[in-house]
Amino acid sequence: MPADSAKQRTVSSITLPGLISPHDLASDRQFAMTLARGLEVLRAFTAANPVLSNREIADRTGLPKPTVSRLTYTLGLLGYMSKDADSQKYRLASGVLALGHPLLASMKTRQLAKPLMVNIARQTGCTVNLGVRDRTDIVYVDSVRADGRNEYLPDIGSTYPLLVSSMGHVLIHGLPRPQKQALLNYLKVQDKELFALHRQGLEADGRLFAEQGYCLSSGAWDRELYAIAVPLRGAPGEPALSMNGTLYAHKNARQKLVDEVLPLLKQSAHEIEASHGLRSG
């Protein structure tokens, strides 16, 4: 099921993008606390909880309710949130979409990957997805489905915990060792139950990734969904990505993914990285 990973937390312990280890905000004079709090308010909304009251936002962020009230009022005036007249609750507004589009439109790797993803989907019947890491989640930046019988087609921008997906495992195991260990330590602390539930699969994928350069998962959040993923280095200035192929309710899913889909994913990743000058030929 889609992740609803927002948990109660105080802004003094915000995990900054790309940084899992604690950051000393008290001594960082460059850090804009009010801005950080406003962004945490926006992050409180999820697909599972698209409408929230000030009290609910306060509970999810750990911020005082009066602070939340000022922030939601301000974000509403700026067009990033809207308020329902009857319930007096808030939802995200179109201003948030306007913020995300320039990022998607400027991702060179995403543009290069699109026709290759379409080709893989048409050849194999898979849904093919492209994702990047956002804190402890994988966020989808593109998705292609050629076979209507494959029910899995995540929305662009949807998120799932790193621990439950093959793409997430790729992005964990592809990190340099110190960063990987810091992330794993953080994941253990952030959600002990989720980490314990998926630890065995994560470790198995770690061995698979080290030996053969891919991760393979099945049934992590849907027992009929199988996925195989490979790493993809982005263009200079872009984050690391992962590309996967998924099959839903397929009789020989694991074998098909390894035999047919994996070679196409690896070849596509090679072509994209070569176009960035990260590989030869």
TrEMBL record:
Which keywords does the record carry? DNA-binding, Transcription, Transcription regulation
Q: Where is the HTH iclR-type domain?
A: 32-94
What's one GO MF term for it? DNA-binding transcription factor activity
Q: Provide the leader sequence positions.
A: none
Q: Which residues form the IclR-ED domain?
A: 95-278
InterPro entries referenced in this protein's UniProt entry, alphabetically = GAF-like_dom_sf (IPR029016), HTH_MetabolicPath_Reg (IPR050707), Tscrpt_reg_IclR_C (IPR014757), Tscrpt_reg_IclR_N (IPR005471), WH-like_DNA-bd_sf (IPR036388), WH_DNA-bd_sf (IPR036390)
SMART domains associated with the record: HTH_ICLR
Q: From which source organism is this entry?
A: Diaphorobacter ruginosibacter
Domain of life of the native organism: Bacteria
* Coiled coil feature spans: none
Protein name in the entry: IclR family transcriptional regulator
GO BP term, pick one: negative regulation of DNA-templated transcription
